[in-house]
Write a structure and sequence with these properties.
- By secondary structure, this protein is α+β, with helices and mostly antiparallel strands.
- The chain has four domains: 21-149, Agglutinin, subunit A; 154-284, no CATH class; 460-568, Phosphorylase Kinase, domain 1; 575-782, Transferase(Phosphotransferase), domain 1 (Orthogonal Bundle), CATH 1.10.510.
- The protein is built from 15 helices and 45 strands.
- The protein has an eight-stranded mixed beta sheet with strand order 26-25-33-29-34-31-32-30, covered by helices on one side. A five-stranded antiparallel beta sheet has the order 35-36-37-39-38, with helices on both faces. It has a four-stranded antiparallel beta sheet with strand order 1-10-11-12, with no helix packed on it.
- Helix 9 runs antiparallel to helix 11 and helix 11 (675-691) runs antiparallel to helix 13 (736-749).
- The longest helix has 32 residues, at 428-459.
- It is globular and about 85 Å long.
- The N and C termini lie far apart (83 Å).
- 42% of the residues are buried.
Amino acid sequence: MNNICIILLISTLLPNHTLCKANHTIHMTNSITYADTLVSPGGIFELGFFSPESSRNWYVGIWFKNIALKTPIWVANRQTPLRNATSAVLKVIRPGILVLVVDEETVWSSGTSRLANNPIAQLLDSGNLVLREENDARPENYLWQSFDYLSNTFLVGMNFGWNYITGVESYLSSWKSEKDPASGEFTLHLEPSGYPQLITKKGAVIQYRIGPWNGIAFSGSPDVSSDPAFTFTLYMDEDGVYYRGDAIDRSAITMFSLNPNGVGQRSIWVDQTQEWVRYLSLPADNCDSYSFCGAYGSCNIGEFPVCGCLDKFVPKDPSGWAKADWTNGCVRRTGLNCTAGEGFLKYSSIKLPDARDSWYNVTMSLDECKVECLKNCSCMAYTSLDIRGRGSGCLLWFGELVDIRVLSGGGQDLFIRMASSELGTNGKRKEVLIGSLTAVGIALLGLSVFVYIWKRKKNDKTGERVGIHTETENKDFQLPLFDLSTISKATNNFSIENKIGEGGYGPVYKGTLEDGQVIAVKRLSKTSDQGVDEFKNEVICIAKLQHRNLVKLPGCCIQGDEKMLLYEYMPNKSLDLILFDEENRTSLDWSKRFNIVNGIARGLMYLHQDSRLRIIHRDLKASNILLDSEMNPKISDFGIAKRFKGNETEDRTGRVVGTYGYMSPEYAMHGRYSVKSDVFSFGVIVLEIVSGKRNSGSFRGDYRGLNLLGHAWTLHKEGRSLELVDTSCANKLDNLGQVLRLIHVGLLCVQHRPEDRPCMTSAVGMLTGDVALTHPNHPGFFTEIDTALTESNRSSNTASSYNEITITMPHGR
């Protein structure tokens, strides 16, 4: 009896967290204070309070337990340091949240995916701090886990990349300094667009790139297949895409960290010397700097100068290269014209180019890959997707090839498209014929230019027609002309402080005219792929169109080589900058999102139905939707729009231009465009607005081929459409019927067959409830599953469950 009394007495004196509870778990009945730690069950990791050397701030972090040099691999309150940790408490509260509290004030808290009856926080031997229901240890049911919200360190066992089910991206962000764990300037991401690759950014600017994945490693990184202690794998399915390392030898302690200068370092702990030994550092040299030698340039650190052009390519700006300025890159010695005889040259031992504008198929052979690339004029290069064994799969590039370097003793083969004359199979006779035809062409071109200039001087002496010379166009589409000096003054001489963006056309500046009108000035860049045709097209399309959901064009400036368009200034910039930003999109509540969709729909209906010309935009996307001060949407950027007259409803082009993820299947594959092409793009934007996620790069799988459209379609079929809604506003919905109607309309607009899609007049009626909803069919996916299925689809005119190919055009805006 005396012993029992002594035990009870001791129990009243000890803190409750030391009793009957494992020291790796926090329950709602205990907590962690300044003097306490959690230790994982195997004694590998420890959680507690720490202060960086020479710092007065305190943080909650996780570090390796049995290493003398305390190295935090995760920090909870990295943005909100504690000035005094003695009164701080880390505890679990209902409905299942881990909180750091100081004097009853919450300094940091975790998230949670759902309510829990008996939530606990547990530190695992992997270094993962998990929040879960006490009686449910299944990883898929975790309420929250630190592995989803990484700091600056990547460990084996972590999933680095995208979880499409939760919408969470796990990525690294550097510390601000060695003494300050707050988020720094640099981040490292697994970029899922095209084919996955690793990209390090400083802010929004790419610094260096490793990739794409080749079945063994990321192209351009050291070969990790021979590492005896670890295996590294890229996983891709409908649930997500992520990179993971797993330990073979669990006695080895290693980590990869992103330091405050943006350098990625893999280190291993050596017990004998009691220190971290670095055995990998990226970037390793100047050739790792992103696009250091420009498009089609090749960087070789073993040569001087390090930059050169790929074989059969020449400097785009020879004078720049003479000054060691390689930013303009290279161009083909002989240009492409998509004629018979074009083929491919093999380039070996190189780091594969940026794969964000790429398409892949896991089942094709290399020969099939070549055929697929050759029949599409926009395809610039191809290679094997997986280099293991004899190789398999197909990876195609569209657009310019950038960020290439020579890798001695490594790298891969890349097959780049070339003109027939560069393939070494043509005799001198053909070269002479080509030379003669070229000379004749130049002569005819010179004559045409002479006639054009003579006519222009004769018929348009004042030059006030903006390069538009038909009688009808002169009459209907004039714009006020502004002097260059006026625009220069309004933009403070085009100062960098006034620059608010940049696109395919060129930079955009904010300006204020003398009358106080605030404008946005889009200035044609001398290196832009766009030019007079797009300039003229934009003027014609929107100068006389008046609608509250179309951007207004107050005037233009044409003086010498300068060509500028003046827009009304939009203080909230473009929709994509808000919608796809983790913090900014919280300002888009459901009512704002619905109003934006309605505004876009009415603007499109005006273009298709009510304007004096039927106009097809052809590049409708979130970045071309501008938002005014009241978040009203304005459709902009009509540079590649097409005008129809009379009863014209569709047309066909051999030059497909647009943006990956928004182009309709019939336009991307066959060059056919109509008002239904814009309807498809509108449907994509609707689903992006609902979900807060991009169609390009989201929910893309290796076999099932799920992008955002596929994900929305799957949820719709299973009666779970509400799961598509952006988590930032999912808990604040007051009209579920309206939400479901919007998703339904989006799916109707992205149906594979254009004839199944509603016209915009019907779509507007559906949004308001005035037009009944029909049952949607399968959407267009832009992925390919199986070669045999693809061939059968090409011979069929019926609706299919997927599209043949993903296309990103070289001049996509």
